[in-house]
Amino acid sequence: MAKAPKNAISPTREEDYPEWYQQAVKGADLAENSPVRGCMVIKPWGYAIWENMQRVLDQMFKDTGHQNAYFPLFIPLSYLEKEAAHVEGFAKECAVVTHHRLEAAPGGGLVPTGKLEEPLVVRPTSETIIGAMYAKWVQSYRDLPILINQWANVVRWELRTRLFLRTTEFLWQEGHTAHATEQEAVEETLRMLDVYTAFAQDYMAMPVVKGEKTAGERFPGAVNTYSIEAMMQDRKALQAGTSHFLGQNFSRAQEIKFLNQEGKETFAWTTSWGVSTRLVGALVMMHGDDDGIVVPPRLAPQHVVILPIFRNDEERAGVMEYCQRVQKELTAATYDGQPVRAMIDARDLRGGDKMWQHVKKGVPLRLEIGPRDVAGDSVFVGRRDTSTKQPMPRAELLGTIAERLTEIQQNLFARALAFREQNTHQIDDREEFIRFFTPRSEDKPEIHGGFAMSHYAESPEVAELLAKLKVTIRCLPQSGQPGSDDTPGRCIFTGQPSQRRAVFAKAY
Amino acid sequence: MAKAPKNAISPTREEDYPEWYQQAVKGADLAENSPVRGCMVIKPWGYAIWENMQRVLDQMFKDTGHQNAYFPLFIPLSYLEKEAAHVEGFAKECAVVTHHRLEAAPGGGLVPTGKLEEPLVVRPTSETIIGAMYAKWVQSYRDLPILINQWANVVRWELRTRLFLRTTEFLWQEGHTAHATEQEAVEETLRMLDVYTAFAQDYMAMPVVKGEKTAGERFPGAVNTYSIEAMMQDRKALQAGTSHFLGQNFSRAQEIKFLNQEGKETFAWTTSWGVSTRLVGALVMMHGDDDGIVVPPRLAPQHVVILPIFRNDEERAGVMEYCQRVQKELTAATYDGQPVRAMIDARDLRGGDKMWQHVKKGVPLRLEIGPRDVAGDSVFVGRRDTSTKQPMPRAELLGTIAERLTEIQQNLFARALAFREQNTHQIDDREEFIRFFTPRSEDKPEIHGGFAMSHYAESPEVAELLAKLKVTIRCLPQSGQPGSDDTPGRCIFTGQPSQRRAVFAKAY
Fold first, then answer.
1. CA–CA distance from A395 to each of A305, A344, A369, A379, A433 (Å)?
2. How far is C-alpha A169 from the chain's CA centre?
3. pTM for this structure?
4. CB contact (8 A) between residue B129 and residue A35
5. Which residues from chain A sit within 8 angstroms of residue B141, using beta carbons?
6. So what's the ipTM on this one?
7. How do strand B497-498 and strand B489-490 relate by DSSP bridges?
């Protein structure tokens, strides 16, 4: 075995968190930049994690009564313009199709020709084009609710991009629903926020705070926006999913109207909600360590990787046979309602290099199996989340595989929750707030901050201070959320009355 | 119950096949045109069929060693230009992004601004952008093969579109592989042709002829193109999937090269292969009848729809309870390795209207359940493929559900195969060939033709005649295919020697 390097990822999180992130993504072979500005290539391991996220979310959506459908990639400019706040919010980042063919230029090469009468915008989100269809589909209250989700790619022209976290093109799901009453639409908005919360916590092992966004952070055109917010290991917040109550703003702009039970023409109440490949970035930053990413078992493309170790052909035969037997036995076992996913990596590579590849990819359990393990009917188990290794009788591993994976899943959540709790503080004083968000040392600018739970009232003064500190209001946590506080108080900046504390943090 | 109309779809297939297709798609609520020229909206029932196709194909791809990944939507113009035949083939149908933001125009409204230095083409297919990445990933023979598939949307600007069959944007999968040797790449090309054949026949219940395309019908840039061809009910051929051996054409253009085992720099051998949402259109045309579409059980979003029938609240309670029991028992049964999919349609709609909706949607089995069925512990079973109805003890249905669905699946295939065989002819005479493809009556222009298996040799004369008849060479069937014939002969048009018969047909 090759001697282990001190850490598989350089720099460490503490040395340079943003660069650690890039190297962790690269080390796990999740994705890389493409020659197309701001667009990434999602590589097989990264895409397999996204597929697992899709599979789980898709079932959650179906279990809450939604169906999938697919709407056009292109939105006519005039449709985007219908909702004023909406177009204002997206105009600066739209990819625009203006021509529909290429022709040889006199000087060589090709130039766009066939100019379109009306430019088409590559969807940055689909409220307007989906709403146009709903306007056709909805005539009577009997046509409602419409509960549809779409898995799709969207494009928002970004100047500064980071793999998964902010890219020009990204993959997402966008739910779009229309309802007969305001109450139903509000309930739907909050139901999907709960679905996202359950997904983040139960599958990604990522504790989140759920709550309403302030006016300045709303989705363009929404009446209310709700989000789930997670604390990354640099103590910054990451918005991991949003659910929007759109009121009648879009239905008025697009004439989604119906005859209600009293025969009166009424505008529908609509919602939209989405999560994206950004979640893969969140997973990296949530659980990764200085050896690479750590994938929670419930989303891991492989639960177990088996690494055969041998020095010659004679050893090879016995070791491979044993490995295949262990694989077969593992995949006959069940974890999380599915067969355990176990692969053998028999590539002709040095054992140490091979092992470190799987460490960096965050496979929950590694089994190293050599001739001595075969002789002793045992396996040598490496556990990714705790970086511990131990020999174990084969039968013991097989009898406890589901429990072990469950334990890893729970440990990841508990560890993340403890970290967030350590770094969440009720702050009732302006100076303390400023100190909390001010770097403590020039050398390590990121070792400060976290979530500050403070009373505040909206005012230009507060906005200015927050901008200076590069701090944002993440959300107003729902009652009963960890750290929420429904006791009224006074804005720590202005002394104005405040109904409840908000979560403040630096953010991605 | 409402009196049944003579046929649920008007016109019938015989009256006007193209219009029947549009009405069958509409009647099943599969898809509709969007306000965006040539782009369709895939509605929930149509998308659910596509999802089932995806699920099965995805597993077949994984079982043959492929992994999914995701590449950018946009292709820089200069990348598309690298392979001459390729760009020539797609230049006339490219959507081109030229700007990346919108700004308020002086006269009101928005105009595109932020002109891109290099225009971006919305992918019509991804050989060039994926190849650019493979060039980075491949250094040594140890990096090969690369076996990747992508599920994505693509855009080809079409002037005349038809739902599913030809749309500007469509959904598809595109496999892209790179290999160290020519033989491996050829084997991959043919392996995926076999996967498509198995999918078409075993899941879509759609018999296909597989074979090589002639030079004029090759994918732009390919060395060889292979396809599967199915006969629709108007006797026209539909190309349902293609697999391309790209030789070293793309790897030379994009410098996908590696050091082989002898340490010599070599260009990789590549393939690509794809099927699209066009398959949903094929399914409609393959099995639909004058009452609407018929979905093969293995791809049906619902295997069974249960229709409760009652006249008052008192009857309602008993009927619904019984329906729920039957649903529960059905979904506890297994068909094709999965739980039987059974839904209750309890909407407040007239029974006849409701039943006909499900007929038009092609649900394999319908159970009508009223108070008398409850009393007799029976169900009234409507079978979609044969349009037969019969009462049956509940226990009998439950005990035979998997067999019944299997029988429907087999019947659909057998029926389609018999139709194709009836309409496939070896034609050895020029005049007979012309007669075969010439409409027999002005009133019913479509009742003629089919697959003609004839000897031919490429020549301008043949090309001209075929163009005049609107007939194309579909493929050169592989040996052993139904209708294939490896006996050499002479071109029926020119008398030149011919190695084997080709399949000729009018086509979609």
1. 17, 18, 14, 9, 55
2. 15
3. 0.96
4. yes
5. none
6. 0.96
7. antiparallel
